[in-house]
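Work through this:
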Amino acid sequence: MSAAPLRLAVINSSVREGRFGPTVARWFHTQTEQRTDVEVDLIDLDEHAIPHQMSHSPSDSVAAELARVSPRLAAAEAFVVVTPEYNHSYPASLKNLIDWHSTQWQAKPVGFVSYGGLAGGLRSVEHLRPVFAELHAVTVRDCVSFHNVWGQFDETGALVEPTAASTAAKALLDQLVWWGVSLREAREKRPYGA
């Protein structure tokens, strides 16, 4: 079994003004820092001006912007998507990132940390599962969900009551590592071809 830490890309998907995503993403990142079996690349979509108009022959400026994020997705062996729920689904910025990339997701696991109001972002997660299945990615069952998120964190970005969320994060990471290492070993023996 491979002993190298799993390369995990954590994608903060919200780009909306006043977004709460950075707080949630930072909290999740602290959960990963307690582990030796993952190394994290935090990708904030607010830092990437990925164009909405897609092209098979992107301009030099578009290619340069994609070059800032595409290799990071390709290098990842697993993903965690931190997503809010907008209008019962996930943000357009995330769909745009997904649609610009196809092979980067293949034969890799994807987990979710969602947040929002009463539903805690879970409807966005349920919409994302078939999207990632179409891209030949494996979504893990367990996720972390913050219901009525704005009251769960204090002014420093720490959870007021961290026990349940930390337990959920551990379960999510355990599943991601199992799938990520297993799929890494499978790709090493036989490259995935869709």
Observations:
- The CA atoms of residues 104 and 170 lie 25 Å apart.
